[in-house]
Design a protein that fits this description.
This protein has 263 residues and is of the alpha+beta class. Helices cover 14% and strands 35% of the residues. The chain has helices spanning 3-13, 15-22, 59-66, 72-77, 160-163, and strands spanning 34-37, 47-51, 82-83, 86-95, 101-114, 120-125, 135-138, 144-145, 166-168, 173-181, 186-197, 200-206, 213-216, 226-231, 242-244. Strands 5, 8, 9, 11, 12 and 13 form a 6-stranded antiparallel sheet that branches. A 5-stranded mixed sheet has the order 3-2-6-14-15. The longest helix has 11 residues, at 3-13.
Length: 263
Protein backbone atom coordinates (compact mmCIF):
# COMPACT_ATOMS: atom_id res chain seq x y z
CA UNK A 1 0.00 0.00 0.00
CA UNK A 2 1.11 3.59 -0.60
CA UNK A 3 2.11 6.00 2.14
CA UNK A 4 -0.99 8.10 1.44
CA UNK A 5 -3.30 5.15 2.08
CA UNK A 6 -1.46 4.31 5.30
CA UNK A 7 -1.77 7.86 6.52
CA UNK A 8 -5.49 7.88 5.70
CA UNK A 9 -6.08 4.68 7.65
CA UNK A 10 -4.18 6.09 10.66
CA UNK A 11 -6.20 9.32 10.60
CA UNK A 12 -9.57 7.61 10.16
CA UNK A 13 -9.29 4.58 12.43
CA UNK A 14 -6.53 5.25 14.93
CA UNK A 15 -3.29 3.57 15.94
CA UNK A 16 -4.70 0.13 16.91
CA UNK A 17 -6.35 -0.48 13.55
CA UNK A 18 -3.29 0.91 11.76
CA UNK A 19 -1.00 -1.51 13.61
CA UNK A 20 -3.26 -4.46 12.84
CA UNK A 21 -2.98 -3.75 9.10
CA UNK A 22 0.56 -2.47 8.64
CA UNK A 23 2.42 -4.18 11.47
CA UNK A 24 0.94 -7.64 11.51
CA UNK A 25 2.80 -10.12 13.69
CA UNK A 26 4.06 -13.35 12.12
CA UNK A 27 1.45 -16.04 11.40
CA UNK A 28 0.28 -18.73 13.81
CA UNK A 29 2.83 -21.20 15.07
CA UNK A 30 0.89 -24.38 14.42
CA UNK A 31 1.95 -26.89 11.80
CA UNK A 32 5.46 -27.83 10.80
CA UNK A 33 8.55 -26.18 12.32
CA UNK A 34 9.99 -25.14 8.95
CA UNK A 35 8.06 -23.55 6.10
CA UNK A 36 9.50 -24.79 2.79
CA UNK A 37 8.63 -22.88 -0.39
CA UNK A 38 9.31 -24.45 -3.80
CA UNK A 39 7.77 -21.67 -5.89
CA UNK A 40 11.04 -19.90 -6.79
CA UNK A 41 12.22 -20.47 -10.36
CA UNK A 42 15.74 -21.76 -10.88
CA UNK A 43 17.94 -19.85 -13.33
CA UNK A 44 18.54 -22.26 -16.23
CA UNK A 45 21.07 -20.92 -18.72
CA UNK A 46 21.17 -24.33 -20.40
CA UNK A 47 19.65 -27.76 -19.88
CA UNK A 48 19.04 -31.23 -21.20
CA UNK A 49 15.53 -32.70 -20.97
CA UNK A 50 14.80 -36.24 -22.14
CA UNK A 51 11.32 -37.57 -22.88
CA UNK A 52 10.15 -41.16 -22.40
CA UNK A 53 8.50 -41.11 -25.85
CA UNK A 54 9.69 -40.07 -29.30
CA UNK A 55 8.40 -36.58 -30.14
CA UNK A 56 8.05 -35.67 -33.81
CA UNK A 57 7.63 -31.90 -33.80
CA UNK A 58 6.48 -30.03 -36.86
CA UNK A 59 8.19 -26.84 -38.02
CA UNK A 60 5.29 -24.76 -36.67
CA UNK A 61 5.75 -26.33 -33.24
CA UNK A 62 9.49 -25.67 -33.29
CA UNK A 63 8.79 -22.06 -34.23
CA UNK A 64 6.47 -21.69 -31.23
CA UNK A 65 9.04 -23.23 -28.88
CA UNK A 66 11.72 -20.96 -30.36
CA UNK A 67 9.70 -17.87 -29.42
CA UNK A 68 9.12 -19.17 -25.89
CA UNK A 69 5.40 -19.78 -26.31
CA UNK A 70 5.60 -22.13 -24.49
CA UNK A 71 9.15 -22.53 -23.26
CA UNK A 72 10.65 -25.78 -24.55
CA UNK A 73 11.66 -26.76 -21.02
CA UNK A 74 8.11 -26.41 -19.72
CA UNK A 75 6.66 -28.16 -22.78
CA UNK A 76 8.94 -31.18 -22.36
CA UNK A 77 8.59 -31.43 -18.58
CA UNK A 78 4.78 -31.36 -18.89
CA UNK A 79 5.04 -34.47 -21.10
CA UNK A 80 6.91 -36.60 -18.59
CA UNK A 81 10.36 -35.27 -19.34
CA UNK A 82 13.26 -35.27 -16.91
CA UNK A 83 16.39 -33.15 -16.71
CA UNK A 84 19.71 -34.87 -17.04
CA UNK A 85 22.21 -35.75 -15.87
CA UNK A 86 21.22 -33.47 -13.00
CA UNK A 87 18.28 -31.38 -11.89
CA UNK A 88 18.39 -28.23 -9.78
CA UNK A 89 15.78 -27.41 -7.13
CA UNK A 90 15.50 -24.03 -5.41
CA UNK A 91 13.85 -23.94 -1.98
CA UNK A 92 13.29 -21.16 0.53
CA UNK A 93 13.20 -22.45 4.12
CA UNK A 94 11.80 -20.35 6.97
CA UNK A 95 11.70 -20.84 10.73
CA UNK A 96 8.18 -21.28 12.10
CA UNK A 97 8.62 -21.43 15.87
CA UNK A 98 9.21 -18.92 18.67
CA UNK A 99 12.45 -20.77 19.38
CA UNK A 100 15.18 -21.55 16.84
CA UNK A 101 14.74 -24.75 14.85
CA UNK A 102 17.59 -26.61 13.20
CA UNK A 103 17.77 -28.58 9.94
CA UNK A 104 20.24 -31.41 10.59
CA UNK A 105 19.75 -33.53 7.48
CA UNK A 106 18.35 -33.67 3.96
CA UNK A 107 18.02 -36.86 1.92
CA UNK A 108 16.76 -37.51 -1.60
CA UNK A 109 14.57 -40.59 -1.07
CA UNK A 110 14.17 -42.57 -4.28
CA UNK A 111 10.67 -43.85 -5.08
CA UNK A 112 11.53 -45.72 -8.28
CA UNK A 113 14.40 -45.94 -10.73
CA UNK A 114 14.83 -47.61 -14.13
CA UNK A 115 16.69 -47.33 -17.43
CA UNK A 116 17.41 -43.76 -18.56
CA UNK A 117 14.84 -42.10 -20.83
CA UNK A 118 15.47 -42.54 -24.55
CA UNK A 119 12.48 -41.15 -26.48
CA UNK A 120 13.64 -37.62 -27.35
CA UNK A 121 16.34 -35.25 -26.19
CA UNK A 122 16.10 -31.46 -25.98
CA UNK A 123 19.63 -30.08 -25.67
CA UNK A 124 19.91 -26.35 -24.88
CA UNK A 125 23.58 -25.45 -24.60
CA UNK A 126 24.75 -22.42 -22.66
CA UNK A 127 27.76 -20.13 -22.47
CA UNK A 128 26.70 -18.76 -19.09
CA UNK A 129 27.10 -19.81 -15.48
CA UNK A 130 24.76 -21.39 -12.97
CA UNK A 131 23.38 -20.58 -9.56
CA UNK A 132 25.59 -21.44 -6.60
CA UNK A 133 24.82 -24.95 -5.39
CA UNK A 134 24.13 -25.52 -1.68
CA UNK A 135 24.00 -29.34 -1.62
CA UNK A 136 24.49 -32.25 -4.01
CA UNK A 137 22.64 -35.60 -4.05
CA UNK A 138 24.02 -38.68 -5.83
CA UNK A 139 21.01 -40.78 -6.86
CA UNK A 140 23.28 -43.64 -7.93
CA UNK A 141 24.34 -44.16 -4.30
CA UNK A 142 22.44 -46.60 -2.03
CA UNK A 143 21.37 -43.63 0.11
CA UNK A 144 21.32 -40.14 -1.40
CA UNK A 145 22.35 -37.93 1.51
CA UNK A 146 23.24 -34.26 1.11
CA UNK A 147 26.86 -33.77 0.06
CA UNK A 148 29.15 -30.77 -0.09
CA UNK A 149 29.19 -29.46 -3.69
CA UNK A 150 32.39 -29.58 -5.73
CA UNK A 151 34.53 -32.18 -7.43
CA UNK A 152 33.79 -34.62 -10.23
CA UNK A 153 33.09 -37.79 -8.23
CA UNK A 154 30.03 -37.49 -5.92
CA UNK A 155 31.11 -40.60 -3.97
CA UNK A 156 34.21 -38.72 -2.77
CA UNK A 157 32.35 -35.68 -1.46
CA UNK A 158 31.88 -34.98 2.26
CA UNK A 159 28.48 -35.29 3.91
CA UNK A 160 27.08 -31.77 4.16
CA UNK A 161 25.53 -32.15 7.61
CA UNK A 162 28.62 -33.66 9.17
CA UNK A 163 30.05 -30.14 9.25
CA UNK A 164 26.98 -27.91 8.79
CA UNK A 165 23.52 -27.36 10.19
CA UNK A 166 20.91 -24.77 9.28
CA UNK A 167 19.45 -22.88 12.24
CA UNK A 168 16.37 -20.72 11.68
CA UNK A 169 14.70 -18.31 14.10
CA UNK A 170 11.08 -17.32 13.64
CA UNK A 171 10.62 -15.69 10.22
CA UNK A 172 14.28 -16.16 9.27
CA UNK A 173 14.71 -17.39 5.70
CA UNK A 174 17.47 -19.10 3.78
CA UNK A 175 17.59 -20.04 0.10
CA UNK A 176 18.90 -23.47 -0.85
CA UNK A 177 19.80 -24.66 -4.34
CA UNK A 178 19.97 -28.46 -4.46
CA UNK A 179 21.42 -30.53 -7.29
CA UNK A 180 20.38 -34.17 -7.75
CA UNK A 181 22.41 -36.20 -10.23
CA UNK A 182 22.45 -39.61 -11.89
CA UNK A 183 24.99 -41.03 -14.33
CA UNK A 184 23.32 -44.45 -14.64
CA UNK A 185 19.51 -44.29 -14.67
CA UNK A 186 16.21 -42.44 -14.42
CA UNK A 187 14.93 -41.81 -10.88
CA UNK A 188 11.92 -40.28 -9.18
CA UNK A 189 12.48 -38.97 -5.66
CA UNK A 190 11.25 -36.77 -2.85
CA UNK A 191 13.27 -34.73 -0.35
CA UNK A 192 13.22 -35.59 3.34
CA UNK A 193 14.26 -32.82 5.74
CA UNK A 194 15.16 -33.79 9.32
CA UNK A 195 14.43 -30.91 11.70
CA UNK A 196 15.11 -30.50 15.42
CA UNK A 197 12.14 -28.72 16.98
CA UNK A 198 12.82 -28.21 20.68
CA UNK A 199 12.96 -31.70 22.20
CA UNK A 200 11.48 -33.37 19.10
CA UNK A 201 12.95 -34.44 15.78
CA UNK A 202 10.57 -34.04 12.86
CA UNK A 203 10.66 -35.35 9.27
CA UNK A 204 9.35 -32.95 6.62
CA UNK A 205 8.81 -34.06 3.01
CA UNK A 206 9.08 -31.95 -0.13
CA UNK A 207 7.95 -32.93 -3.62
CA UNK A 208 7.34 -31.20 -6.96
CA UNK A 209 3.81 -29.85 -6.45
CA UNK A 210 2.36 -33.24 -5.58
CA UNK A 211 4.62 -35.26 -7.87
CA UNK A 212 8.10 -36.66 -7.31
CA UNK A 213 11.11 -34.82 -8.66
CA UNK A 214 12.69 -36.50 -11.71
CA UNK A 215 16.18 -36.85 -13.13
CA UNK A 216 17.71 -39.06 -15.83
CA UNK A 217 21.19 -39.92 -16.92
CA UNK A 218 21.97 -39.05 -20.54
CA UNK A 219 22.34 -41.63 -23.28
CA UNK A 220 24.55 -41.30 -26.34
CA UNK A 221 23.05 -39.17 -29.11
CA UNK A 222 22.31 -42.14 -31.37
CA UNK A 223 20.27 -43.89 -28.68
CA UNK A 224 17.47 -41.29 -28.81
CA UNK A 225 14.45 -41.54 -31.07
CA UNK A 226 14.54 -37.83 -31.94
CA UNK A 227 16.87 -34.94 -31.18
CA UNK A 228 16.39 -31.18 -30.85
CA UNK A 229 19.05 -28.51 -30.31
CA UNK A 230 18.61 -25.02 -28.84
CA UNK A 231 20.58 -22.41 -26.94
CA UNK A 232 23.96 -21.17 -28.15
CA UNK A 233 24.44 -24.21 -30.41
CA UNK A 234 21.94 -22.78 -32.92
CA UNK A 235 23.00 -19.11 -32.87
CA UNK A 236 24.79 -19.54 -36.20
CA UNK A 237 21.48 -20.73 -37.66
CA UNK A 238 19.51 -17.75 -36.36
CA UNK A 239 18.74 -19.19 -32.94
CA UNK A 240 15.74 -21.12 -31.72
CA UNK A 241 15.12 -24.86 -31.83
CA UNK A 242 16.15 -27.15 -34.69
CA UNK A 243 15.55 -30.85 -35.34
CA UNK A 244 18.50 -33.10 -36.16
CA UNK A 245 19.00 -36.80 -36.87
CA UNK A 246 20.38 -38.48 -33.72
CA UNK A 247 22.35 -40.94 -35.86
CA UNK A 248 24.36 -38.06 -37.36
CA UNK A 249 26.01 -37.48 -33.98
CA UNK A 250 26.91 -41.12 -33.35
CA UNK A 251 27.90 -42.28 -29.87
CA UNK A 252 28.94 -38.88 -28.55
CA UNK A 253 27.88 -37.86 -25.06
CA UNK A 254 25.48 -34.86 -25.18
CA UNK A 255 26.87 -33.45 -21.95
CA UNK A 256 30.42 -33.17 -23.29
CA UNK A 257 29.50 -32.38 -26.90
CA UNK A 258 31.06 -29.17 -28.24
CA UNK A 259 30.69 -29.48 -32.01
CA UNK A 260 28.41 -27.69 -34.41
CA UNK A 261 24.88 -28.76 -35.26
CA UNK A 262 24.84 -27.41 -38.85
CA UNK A 263 22.32 -25.08 -40.46
Amino acid sequence: MSGAIAAAVLAAFGQDIYNSIFHRPPGPLGGLPVLIDHSSEIVREGYFVALPQKAQLQNSQLKSLSTGKPEAYDWAMARGGAEGPRTSIKLVVEGHREHAVKIIGVEAVKERCHEPLSGSLFAAYSAGGEENISMLFDLDAPRSLAKEPGGEDPSMLSDYFEVHSISLTRGEQQTLVLNATSEKRYCEFKLKFTVVDGKSTVAQWVDDSGRPFRVTSLRKFNEYGSLYFGGVSTYQCGGGWVRRDPQSFGDQNPYSFSGGVGC
